[in-house]
Amino acid sequence: MEDCDFNINIAVVGMGLIGGSYAMALRDLEPKCVIGIDKDKYTLKSALDDGIIDGAYESGGDFLKEVDLIIVALYPKDTIAFIKNNLQYLKKGALITDTSGIKQDIVENINSFLPEYLEFIPGHPMAGKESRGIKGASKDIFKGANYIITPGGKNTSRGLQKIDKMARAIGCSNVTYISPKEHDRIITFTSQLPHVIAVSLMNLHEEEYKDSIELFTGGSFKDATRVAQINSKLWTELFIMNSDNLIEEIENFQNSMEILKKAIMSKDISTMRCIFEKSMLKRKELVKGQ
Amino acid sequence: MEDCDFNINIAVVGMGLIGGSYAMALRDLEPKCVIGIDKDKYTLKSALDDGIIDGAYESGGDFLKEVDLIIVALYPKDTIAFIKNNLQYLKKGALITDTSGIKQDIVENINSFLPEYLEFIPGHPMAGKESRGIKGASKDIFKGANYIITPGGKNTSRGLQKIDKMARAIGCSNVTYISPKEHDRIITFTSQLPHVIAVSLMNLHEEEYKDSIELFTGGSFKDATRVAQINSKLWTELFIMNSDNLIEEIENFQNSMEILKKAIMSKDISTMRCIFEKSMLKRKELVKGQ
């Protein structure tokens, strides 16, 4: 039996949008068994009824002794807590991965208490949508998505390869390896800052603009605010865990905007055109070949 | 013959993305004749070859004496200049409309020199795409789009109805009437500010992030920068013509972002969650029923 084989027992912790989607996508890999863990019993019942999982538990416990691969799809703090609180149940050689959008804090924290006989492979599937909960789950969210693995210094090739293969097997297109620190720095620019912008733009005006947006937009406002429909508990955690990077990047953005603002104020046509030419070329490059 | 009839001679000035799309869309209304005016003879040849227009001229002239409806699809300053420079050719009772994204400056300027026997109906079709020139033109850009008419005080119901009917006939879903001043104020929020943001975000980092964006995004960065592929000449004009509104709105946005930044800096969880809940509900409301 090859290492790429997923004929193993898998547990998915947190059966929300991401966890539910994992359970659905893993089904196609024909695992021995997929167990769902969620504190909400209605979520578990729905997952069982739909045949997404084979067994359901409201929390960890003895049954984890049979599990080979644990995918923790909880919020960052809950992810750390779940692993910490269930160490006594985990089987020697079990692989644990997560789905958190911020890595350095989590990797350092988990590695500080994880015994040698367990391995934590930090993962960040860049998949999601605006809806929440298992009702929005779909194995299609992984199709063509980016998957980032951030080895934390305690990883083995066995562990990394398993998660790499899983990511590709559920449909992700790109699996990228990068350090937790570098991951967080880049994600600040490519994901957290766009969320800060979307939220700040969405909250700019009160009711008086409510109907106007619909009638006076060619689409730019809607594009810029798509991710303003944000999960407040999750993103508060993600931002606070990455606050140093994020504050620095917000300030970089503020400076970039200030340059354009000053050019507009002084009606400096040549600077404005230079700024626009630059952004036009950079954006064109970004979508080249798509 | 009803007033809704487009069995008239129409001239489209500027056969770029917007002008070319007008010519194509107007074809379905079976006008007597559509004349294209563009300084680029290759553009004119292409439009003639494709049967989009019946006649072609590189500038205005005597032929305008036969034209009932003139659609000026040039940049704002060129729009004003074209009308001013061709007054002597224009037929008594002819209707003139434009496509500019900013209205107050243009409406005041044109009304200041337009003789009583001509009528200018200011129009803003909120249609477009990232490509430029007649090659990107398509009558489909108007399908379901917003069309704004900003009466300037000198308009007749005959003139307004004609442009209203034309906008609906070429496929626009919503035709909205609003004063030029109010139009510019709202557009600042719903369109100009999102462009300022997209450009400032796109220009934030240099080459070192080029490959990262592709591998480390779930889509939020691409959505937020779609309109960063901007037409530099056009948008420089639009921003300068509306600079007072735009500077004020950029500052409103800077303040909105500063509130979130301060909450992140002080790890003020309750304020952060409050900000996110608000944006989540507002964004949800925006796309309700779509």
UniProtKB/TrEMBL annotation, chains A, B:
GO terms for biological process: tyrosine biosynthetic process. The keyword Membrane applies. GO terms for molecular function: NAD+ binding; prephenate dehydrogenase (NAD+) activity; prephenate dehydrogenase (NADP+) activity. Keywords: Membrane, Oxidoreductase, Transmembrane, Transmembrane helix. Its EC number is 1.3.1.12. Residues 8-290 form the Prephenate/arogenate dehydrogenase domain. Pfam families: PDH_C, PDH_N. PROSITE patterns: PDH_ADH. The chain crosses the membrane at residues 6-25. Pathway: Amino-acid biosynthesis. Belongs to the prephenate/arogenate dehydrogenase family. This is TyrA. It comes from Clostridium kluyveri (strain ATCC 8527 / DSM 555 / NBRC 12016 / NCIMB 10680 / K1). The gene is tyrA.
